[in-house]
Amino acid sequence: MVHLVTSDNVEFVVDKEVVERSVLIKNMLEDVGETDQSIPLANVSSAVLRKVIEYCEHHRGEPLPSADADQNQDETRKRTTDISEWDQKFITVDQEMLFEIILAANYLDIKSLLDVGCKTVANMIKGKTPDEIRRLFNIVNDFTPEEEAQIKKENEWAEDR
Amino acid sequence: MASTRRTVKTKIKPPRKHESEVSLDETWSRLSTNIREIHNQNASNLSFEENYRYAYNMVLYKNGGILYKGVCQLVAENIDRLAQSELVPAFPSGSSKDPVQQSQEGESLLKALRRVWDDHTGNMSKLRDILKYMDRVYTKANDVPEIWDAGLDLFLKHIIRPPIQDHVTSAVLSLIQIERDGYVISRSVVKECVDVLLQLSVDHDAKTVYKRDLEPAVLTASEAFYSAEGKRLLETCDAPEYLRRVEARLDSEQARTYHYLFSQTGDPLRKILERHLLTHNLSTVIGMPNSGLNVMVDLDKFDDLNRLYRLFLMVPSGLPTLRRSFKDSILRRGREINLASTSIDAGQDMDDGDLNDTENTKGKDKGQGQGRTAMGPPTLTLALKWVQTVLDLKDKFDYIWTRAFDNNREVESSLNEAFEDFINLNEKAPEYISLFIDENLKKGLKGKTDMEVDAVLDKTITVFRYITEKDAFERYYKNHLAKRLLLGRSVSDDAERGMLAKLKVECGYQFTQKLEGMFHDMKISADTMQAYRKYLEGVLAPEVEISVTVMTSTFWPMSHSSASCIFPEVLIRACKSFEHFYFSRHSGRRLAWQPSLGNADVRVQFKARKHDVNVSTFALVILMLFENLTDDEFLTYEELKTATSIPDTELQRHLQSLACAKFKILKKHPPGRDVHPSDSFSFNNDFTCPMQKIKISTVSAKVETTKERRETRDRIEEERHHQIEACIVRIMKDRKHLTHNDLVNEVTRQLASRFQPNPQNIKKRIEGLIDREYLERCEDRKSYNYLA
């Protein structure tokens, strides 16, 4: 059993097999060895960690993707935007949590969770106009009108009319 | 999508910006301090996660470049520090010449290098772990090498450069040299250093620093060392010692490569040794007087020879040199053997007269004959000695071939060539071999088991194989066999047949056809004699008991001229009786009596006592003339000649055997050794001899006199002419048209199993055949047509 301590000092006790889906934690355990000391995760809050652990529990036992994934594998992975049903339900969280999950997955090096998160965001972006995207993610438009007109003209060929 | 709904419903909150709580500078300063701690071997106090987080945050906030450069800087500084503190003090002073001290200094430098390397790699491995995120995200995107590889590059840049690299290389070289001089060094130290160099490569191409720098240095040094060593060994060692040392060097270099050099260096290193120690010195070593191949063979130094073989096999020019030397060695010995037999032989030829004398004394008492003139029996013994020495030589060299040369095929062919060469140099070889077999079949094999008999015959066959003039051998063998069969001298019928079978295997059916015919005749004759004896029971038997051997004339060699003589009445009656019997059984045949080949037992009454004397038929005829004479009466040579009409040569020989040899049944007037037409003879009534039975022989196996040899030669030549002609006609009949060269080649090929035809001879035969209109010349004057 592995002890994890989040940024808000909440301790989680998790099975080694579950927690080793995170490559970072796996390496840490290998390097440091068997110890009763808990692993501090200052970058991750308890709410997020809870979600992450839930994901890992559900996917425990699945083969980890190899450390140096083939380029081909990468390509096929990136191309598909389908997410399994459980994952979809799992990732139905508010935007803030979604981003937190993505960041945590990046930090902890859990590829599959990172993929799920990023695919979700990608799906959110797909098919929207720039304005809609700005509104969704609260991005300030910093183009001048001239610039914007310029870009629109350049991208005309890509739009389906 | 669920999220879109949510944003419509609730107010948008900007996502929490993930700024680190601390600034970039602060992060970096904390991280760099920790890295320094790692370099100071204080890693155990640090938190993995903390450092990982620092690095992660730096990369996340787009400060990966600063991180990367900073880390590289720190690593470089550490390496420099290590170099200063560990390596520079360990540079060898180069002042001492004592190998032990030199080796120690070298070793300490290499140990220091290894320590630095181990430190560095330990640190890098820790850094790699905490900088994993940077490696994953930053380096790939920015096309810089991962931190581990960057560490190797830094090591390469800061350490593997002059002066450090030069010192290291020279330390390794000097250690190798010290070991080559016979001292012990610490091999593991060198191995570890070599391992370091094997892992470093410039520009990540295939060539490691080892291959680029160290290996060429090692090879150059080795080249210089071994070319000097080769010369040194040649001067100081004899051949076996040289070979032993070379072998030792090869083994030690192999061990060296195995233990601490890279395996790929093994091959070029080996080639250097082979070149300098073996290839350059091959012929010198093998030809060393007092210790080279010849001496080794003389002294049966099998281990040395085996070592020689193994080493020479390693280089391409080794085996041919060995083969040449081996062949020369055999040839030299073979020629000596030939010389030993011909030098006494030359003496023999001058003294033909004496020869006849001593031949006659061959009988039960060889000893006396040898005392008289050392010419006759030694000539036969010479022949036997020749064959035996050749067989012994073959045994010796065969053993060497098996034991020392590992049954190598090419060496075997050299051996065979050499034997063939020198055996055929001796033109009496076919005769000698036939004599050897003859001697064995008469006496030598008595008492031997079947296997031993077989072994001896097998050995003779091996020598037989080497002769090219097999037809000469056939002729001699036929003669000897005839004598053996007729005089019943053969020790074992089985052995005879065994020999015949072996010859058949070697030369084919044709060769042994006539010989088998001779055996067959003997058997038929035995049956005939049985039947004759039965027949005699029914009719009046003649006074003289005869036993007849009927020989089919084509099979038997009529080498001695079929001389005839006038038989005394008694004998004629006996002959007629047999003839009567024989013709009743077979019709259409003609019998010709051969007195030159027969012998007789006769009881002779001397004054003292009776003796049973065995004499040849001619001698019997002569003796019978003295039957009714008194002591004083004598017959002259001329009278004897007219009465018996035996030809002169035979008459003289037999008179000699009766009157001038050991048992003087007749007295010669005047006494003496040679018989002249003016002599006269009388019966020697006073003859005494301790033995009851005596044998007076004239016909015995002997080496031919020169005259006889010439005769045989001529006959052989004649037969060869016939053979060549028959062969030519056969070939032309088949091909109808051939060029001259083709024809000559074909004839040579077909007759090779019997003898080597001379192209000139073939040409003469062709011309002869053209004259007799078997062939004709074509218009182009180069080819021939067959004329039916």
From TrEMBL, chain A:
Keyword Cell wall biogenesis/degradation applies: no
Oxidoreductase found in the keyword field: no
Any coiled-coil regions, as ranges: none
SKP1 component POZ domain residues: 1-60
CDD domains xref list: BTB_POZ_SKP1
Listed GO biological process terms: ubiquitin-dependent protein catabolic process
Entry keywords, A to Z: Ubl conjugation pathway
Annotated ranges, domain SKP1 component dimerisation: 111-158
InterPro entries with a match to the protein in the record: SKP1, SKP1-like, SKP1-like_dim_sf, SKP1/BTB/POZ_sf, Skp1_comp_dimer, Skp1_comp_POZ
Region annotation Disordered: where it falls in the sequence: 61-81
Transmembrane residue ranges: none
Pathway assigned in UniProt: Protein modification; protein ubiquitination
UniProt cross-references to Gene3D superfamilies, sorted A to Z: Potassium Channel Kv1.1, Chain A
PANTHER family, per database record: SKP1
Function of the molecule: Essential component of the SCF (SKP1-CUL1-F-box protein) E3 ubiquitin ligase complexes, which mediate the ubiquitination and subsequent proteasomal degradation of target proteins.
Subunit structure: Component of the SCF (SKP1-CUL1-F-box protein) E3 ubiquitin ligase complexes.
Family to which the UniProt record says this protein belongs: Belongs to the SKP1 family.
Protein name as it appears in the record: E3 ubiquitin ligase complex SCF subunit
TrEMBL record, chain B:
SUPFAM superfamilies found in the cross-reference section: Cullin homology domain, Cullin repeat-like, Winged helix' DNA-binding domain
Residue stretches of biased makeup (Acidic residues): 348-357
Bias-annotated ranges (Basic residues): 1-16
Domain annotation Cullin family profile: ranges: 428-659
GO cellular component, as recorded: cullin-RING ubiquitin ligase complex
GO molecular function: ubiquitin protein ligase binding
Gene3D superfamilies: Cullin Repeats, Cullin, Chain C, Domain 2, Winged helix-like DNA-binding domain superfamily/Winged helix DNA-binding domain
Family (UniProt): Belongs to the cullin family.
Designated name of the protein: Cullin
Organism: Suillus discolor
